[in-house]
Amino acid sequence: MNTQDKLCALRRNLEAAGVSAVIIPNADPHQSEYLAGHWQVLKWLTGFSGSAGTAVVTQKTAGMWTDFRYWIQAAAQLDSFELFRQGDTGVPSFDTWLTNTLSADDRIALDGKMVSAAQAGRLKKKFAQKGIIVDTTMDLISDLWLDRPPMPRTPAFELDAVYAGESRKEKFSRIRKKMADYNADCHVMAVLDDIAWTFNLRGEDIHTNPVNLSFALITMDKISLFIDPAKVSPALGTALEEDGVALFDYNTFYSVIQNLDKNTRVLLDPERVSDFIYHAIDSRSDIIEASNPSAMFKCVKNKVEISHIRETAVKDGRAVVNFLHWLCTSDAPKTEISAAEQLLTFRKEQNAFIHPSFDSIMAFKEHSAICHYSAQPDTDLPLSPDAMFLTDSGGNYLTGTTDITRTVHLGSATSQEIRDYTLVLKAHIAVATARFPTTARGYQIDAMARRHLWQQGLDFGHGTGHGVGFFLCVHEGPARLSTLPVDIALRPGMILTNEPGLYREGQYGIRLENMVLVIKDRDTQFGSFLKFENMTFCHFERSLMNKTMLSLAEINWVNRYHQMVYDRLAPGLDTPVRQWLKEKTKIL
Length: 588
What we know:
By secondary structure, the protein is of the alpha+beta class. It folds into 3 domains: 3-135, Creatine Amidinohydrolase, Chain A, domain 1; 157-298, Creatinase/prolidase N-terminal domain (Creatine Amidinohydrolase, Chain A, domain 1), CATH 3.40.350.10; 300-584, Creatine Amidinohydrolase (Alpha-Beta Complex). The protein is built from 18 helices and 28 strands. The chain has a 6-stranded mixed β-sheet with strand order 4-3-2-1-5-6. Strands 12-11-10-8-13-14 form a 6-stranded mixed β-sheet, sandwiched between helices. Strands 21-28-27-24 form a 4-stranded antiparallel β-sheet. Strand 3, helix 3 and strand 4 form a beta-alpha-beta unit. Helix 5 crosses helix 11 and helix 15 runs antiparallel to helix 16 (442-454). The longest helix has 27 residues, at 303-329. It is globular, with a radius of gyration of 25 Å.
């Protein structure tokens, strides 16, 4: 079916169900950011392949909302859907638009297995103010998607404690202590990276995300893991059993939670379980609403993990420097896609590399202004020496996950391009050199990055940084550096990115990204202070820096950082690359 045929069929389902609209989030039953093909409903219906979006279909209108990162991409991909640029001036949110469009007593369909309980609750409350009903018991898509991809069945495998730094039995114990604090009998887990971390398991069920489709229940005397049994080898099954884990088929989870003992006190996070799960439990058990203990445990890396990530930063830095050297010196014809393939080749040469941590963003010319651009055969630009080139990539290693962005110019940059690059560099340095009290939140650090851009009337539409998992999801909560007022204090052991940017639509984009580790700085009479340790090694482009725009402190920072890059990477580089890097990192 083409998009028009899909919309006609969906509207027939709307009419048959007696609803006026359907909300279709980009989601799965685990509240994942990236989805297995089986749950990419939004892409199937609209043609949009980005990781964040919401579609709304009524009998007369089909709209799709997405944020700044995907405005340009969505405009190019959408077919028969109107694009609403979420966050742009004067653009209503999808729920506000629906509130203004529908009438009292109208009904909206929303699949309760695909939306968090918290989000569903907020929507129900908002629509109820106008007398509009949200029905979360309907799936109006599945019977239309005849060629739907099957559920993935990649093997699960164990992440040894030599990498994880902690056994799963130790993690179970920590979670149970938190449960005791809440006087909880049972803890429900649905988020895939929380489960992967807790059970020291990894897989490949979601492209570039090393997780397994699964659910888990933890009680004070039993651990239950719900996973396709075909994914678990006999040896892994035995190891899990020896650690007290009972295995159940993935598809039995919903029936189990609907039959929990009455009056069981269940700890769960409404933001991290579906509306269906929440209400199935709420119908017979007492719910204790709190964050998953594993979420905070996971984001604060232990000493073993940090040691491995420091090692991984060097390996990954060598791969990226080898790539940038190839980019600048090889005479072979290059395109965005062939550049991504070459970088992957360099990463594969590194010890313990598994796969990319996301699809590499290789963005030339105007494509670099598309934050999450992904080159396709029909958009694959040949590289030529006349424009900006943005490369954002990362790797998943047994020894950690990486995320790095560099922007180069393949020819002679204009004065505006140099000015913009320097402003983004200043923003990056502002975060890299930040010192802050233990009470600081990410939005306060985010403002430090934007200050230099704001003074010039400039800004960027994404956050300054996100958490990074340990051989897990490249985007990890709960801490982040963004304008959103997330009430999570930064703590030693957290790993975040530092990635300010600047984007001129139709021209070019610039982003400079390192990973940073929160560490202790010092204690003073005013309290305890923290700072960041750099966890990424790769030079910045001296030829794109306007030295007159940099303060002496900023120049000294660049020189110290470049010396550190050379010292760490040079021993593992071939002579031509080492000599090239020496030139790239010489004193400003």
